[in-house]
Amino acid sequence: MRGTGGLRTDEGGAGGWGGSGGEAPIPPAGRARPRTRTWAVPALALIALVAAGTSVADELTRRDRAADNRAQLDRACRGLLPAERLRPYLPDTSRGRLTEYGTLVGTDPARGTRALYECRLSWGGGGPRGAYGAQAVVRAVALGRPGDEGGPTLPRPEGQAFPLALPPSALGESSLSRGLAAADLVVTCPAGVVRHGGERTTDLRIRVDLPRDRSTPDPDPDPGADAARDLADRRAAARTAVAVADWVTARAGCGAAPVAPVAAGDPTAGTALCRWLGRGVPGLGGGRPADPVAPYTTRVGACGAGRPGGDRIEAVSGSGAWGTNVYEDSGTASPVRRDDGSWEWTGGSPWAVARASSRCGGARVYHRVAVVPPYVAPGEDGRSRLARADVDRLEETARRVLARYLAAPDAWPARSGCRDTTTLPGESG
Question: What is the pTM of this model?
Fold first, then answer.
């Protein structure tokens, strides 16, 4: 029996919406046909497949980028960088950026470059050692005089000494900052190299900056490990500087002997070049030389000694560009000599100076001895004064110490074979 809008019960007890035989049942008025959600499972599967594919693609991209960065590091900067040491700094989230230029590699000097060679490789970050913004830089320039383009000027104290042995014709230093290990090296080019502007010089400066190992806390809980890590960082920068120096000098054809064979020697071997300063030198009053033993270099020698409340004595010799620096340095104060022979100055420390020049190993060398008096408090007008008797004593001490310095068999001038020495006018400063 069919009822209008009612529930139909066929024989066999099956129930459903109205209709007969194979016809599709018709829902009653006011009721919607139910929708079968057959699309849901395939859609979710597609989303999962796309996500998995994206993840795989991202991983492949990271691997490709890491491989590209490793390949770039191996060939960057003419292969002069310590690739194995720098690999932990390579990110896989960004590509390394490499810049290279200089007169030795075809850059037109008229475009403004001052470098014979400069190479810089930097990374945006994401390396396993957290070296965000890490970079490696090598730079080679021809020096006009010490202080040009920075670099070493005098032998450095132990903490900044170059951690590798060097030939006598070279001079180096190293330094550390929180994220950087740096090495400076100056080598001799006997045939000369041309600076920007056309000036020819025999002094070549190499500068290397490398990221420091920051995989352990700074400072390390183990002081021994911390010191070993610092030394390893300094040596890595120094070895790179040696490699760059040998590559640049060979490419420039400037007649320099390779540094690397010497660098394999003992960096602590030194010569007692300052002991003469501790043997009854007038005005020293029992003071001792500051650095009695140091690696010998033909470029520059420096000794200093003093005592609290007494005079401070400095003896310096320099060849080439360093000689110019030795001769022209006038100290930190410029006293005015009054009519009565006394000094008067504002700020700084004046000194009495005695100078001489020699030929040492074929090069012109300047020697300077400076005697600095104890601190003199300024008067009410802000000016310090030193009586004529004290000025005369300082100047006489400078002349006597210079004579001793030039004659001492274990001092730098004798070690360098200096001859044809001439005393020069010495001006107090």
Answer: 0.69
